[in-house]
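Researcher: We're teaching a course module on how sequence relates to structure. For the next exercise, students receive a sequence and then see the predicted structure as tokens, so they can try to spot secondary structure elements on their own. Here is the exercise chain.
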Amino acid sequence: MANALQKKQFIDLAEYSDMRCPMHGLLSLLTGPWTTYILWLLRLNGEMRFGELKKQMPGISAKVLTERLRMLEKAGIINREQELSVPPKVTYSFTEQGHALERLLDEVNALALEWNGDYGMPKSCGFDPTMNKHVNEA
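Model: And here is the predicted structure for the students to work with:
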């Protein structure tokens, strides 16, 4: 059991914080443009391909999505799996470290729904690629 505890992966959060503060580093890592929403989509859907992620975020450029995914992979939060096929099939999923964020993401979602109240936003929403538009559920 001691070996299992010793194998826990750590993230050098100082890399994301000029203040050398773990909390600032974690927040900087997770709150970059689109980053938290990418994590939320992986939380909701599990393993996803690049194109699936892109369709769920029509406002993001392929360049920014690639940058965010590479950053999350480098930080050890997501896995990038590539199959040698034509065209190449690349999928993204949570690492063990990424799974540790699930409870936090669920809590942020619960807070968003609570704060949303009856201000006209749906209780859940997503992007339907077959309709090429966002769909909302009351």
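Model: If you want an answer key for the exercise: Residues 40 and 109 are 9 Å apart (CA to CA). The helical segments are 2-6, 22-30, 35-45, 50-56, 62-74, 96-99, 102-116.
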